[in-house]
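agent> Task received from the user: take the single chain below, predict its 3D structure, and emit structure tokens. No templates, no multimer pairing.
agent> Plan: (1) validate residues, (2) run structure prediction, (3) serialize to tokens, (4) report one or two observations.
agent> Step 1 OK, no nonstandard residues flagged.
tool_call: predict_structure(input=
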Amino acid sequence: MIKNIGKIIMDIQHFYIEKGQGEPIILLHGNGEDSSYFKGQISELSKQYHVYAIDTRGHGKTSRGNRPFTIRQFAEDLLGFMDEHGIHKTHLLGFSDGGNIAMVFALRHPDRVNRLILNGANLNAAGVKRSTQIPIEIGYRIAAKFSEKSDSARFHAEMLGLMVNDPNVNPEELSGIQAKTLVIVGTKDMIKEEHTQLIAANIPDSELVFIKGNHFIANKKSEEFNKAVVDFLNR
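)
tool_result: status=success, residues=235
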């Protein structure tokens, strides 16, 4: 089913979890995950905010559709979701690839973002520690080689391709982010510490918070993560 939303033509119907009242906040999960990743955040944030946790195109219960499988397409999908649900402006919390989607969205549509929270985002593949990135790149090359012969290989090539070819944002572009921004990562994150610092340094007046843990602090250190997020939103 293709729907016209303003000037946007949507070829997918997002699955999403909705809870709470107040200012909207949209939660964007990482690569290969779905909205359930934020099970530790939804109830807590819904005490003060109207929470939408959505499944990205081709993830969870949201269909793949026919459009490009890229971070920038996902950002335009998000715009369509907001228009469909009458959300003019929202807080955005993105984890990993979801953080990349949120970052690109904030650059493309600054008037639609209230506050921005980037958890474990990266500008390019070089920002990921090589111990993590090398297996991803090998897996991507293998999957891409067999993608025309196997649906499973095609699926894995698209998923891994997001971490090899996207989002490719130049640090200088980040000066275009107008939203007050929190950059939050684990002390042992798969994103290089200097890369995270580069992101924070190039976003005007951003805040940088490290939480003891790995890439999945929202899931594994939810209480500490939630406190940092709520404190930031309430300031």
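agent> Step 4: summary for the user.
The chain has two domains: 3-124+174-234, 128-166.
agent> Done.
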